[in-house]
Amino acid sequence: MLHFAMREHGRAWDKAVPFLLWAIQEVPNSTTDLSPFMLQYGIAAKGVLSVVKDTWTGQRNLPSSKTVRQYMDELAKHITSANQYAGRTFKEQYAKYHNEHASNKSFPVVVSQ
């Protein structure tokens, strides 16, 4: 992605870095099917355009008044469930891939005198 930003923007490529970082955080990983943002915070990332769209359509839900303790407990629950889901998916996919390409190996025993 950085390569294409450098080609498109030339010497001003550094202006595109914040947008590239957001894109990397927002796009789901092919292995876990979850975005890094989702794995870290337990909720889907909301970019500027989605917030503007929700505001225009009247669907924007402002956070309800929760205590800090309630918010932190809920956040911990979301992060734990996302972590368990990602870990299970990650392990299952890699185990399946490994087992498809694995072969039995045998090594001769060499006795040194």
Describe, in plain words, how this protein is organized in 3D.
- The protein is built from 5 helices and no strands.
- The radius of gyration is 23 Å and the shape is flat.
- The mean pLDDT is 77.
- It is mainly alpha-helical.
- The protein has one domain (2-94).
- The longest helix is centred in the C-terminal third of the chain and has 34 residues, at 68-101.
- It is 60% helix and 0% strand.
Topology:
Blueprint: H1 2-9, H2 17-26, H3 36-41, H4 48-57, H5 68-101
Summary keywords:
5 helices; single chain; mainly alpha; 113 residues; 60% helix
Q: How would you characterize the largest beta sheet? A: none
Mean pLDDT: 77
Q: How many DSSP-defined strands?
A: 0
Which overall shape is indicated by the principal axes computed on the Cα atoms? Answer: flat
- Total domain units: 1
CA distance, first residue to last residue? 58 Å
Helix amount: 55-70%
Strand-residue fraction? under 5%
C-alpha Rg (nearest Å):
23 Å
Helix/sheet category? mainly alpha
Q: Unreliable stretches, pLDDT < 50, 5 or more residues? A: none
Question: Helix segment count?
Answer: 5
H-E string: HHHHH
